[in-house]
């Protein structure tokens, strides 16, 4: 999918351990399965909770934004870019994350699933 040239994007394979990952999926999606170290701020609550990101994100690093397939994360990455944040959309989202064999855990830290 092409989200426009204004939104930088990378595939899951380009991510390294320690990269800052922002998951913008909704609560039910998050509870079912997410990347273990991701910050969760649902897109529907993003404007109200923006301060959580600014407190947690690395000052001089990239914010990799992920959702289920890449549409919502592209929108949030574009928003962040407009506000001076070095944000990158993770193309293919959590579906590609899971397919690549990356860890997915539920809220209890047990193996999860992408829904």
Per-chain topology:
Elements lengths: L8 E2 L9 E4 L3 H6 L6 E2 L9 H7 L6 E4 L4 H12 L4 E4 L2 H7 L16
Protein name: Rhodanese-like domain-containing protein
Organism: Salininema proteolyticum
Description of the molecule:
The protein is α/β, with parallel strands linked by helices and 115 residues long. 28% of the residues lie in helices and 14% in strands. The protein has a single domain, classed as Oxidized Rhodanese, domain 1 (3-Layer(aba) Sandwich), CATH 3.40.250.10. The chain has 4 helices and 5 strands; from the N terminus they run E-E-H-E-H-E-H-E-H.
Radius of gyration: 13 Å
Which bin fits the share of residues in helices? 25-40%
CATH arch. level architecture: 3-Layer(aba) Sandwich
What are the secondary-structure elements, in order, as H or E? EEHEHEHEH
Q: Please report the total strand number as a whole number.
A: 5
In round numbers, the mean pLDDT is 94
Label the structural class.
alpha/beta
Low-pLDDT regions: none
Here the CATH topology equals Oxidized Rhodanese, domain 1
According to CATH, the homologous superfamily is Rhodanese-like domain
Instruction: Describe the main β-sheet briefly.
Output: 5 strands, parallel
Could you say which overall geometry the principal axes of the C-alpha atoms support?
Answer: globular
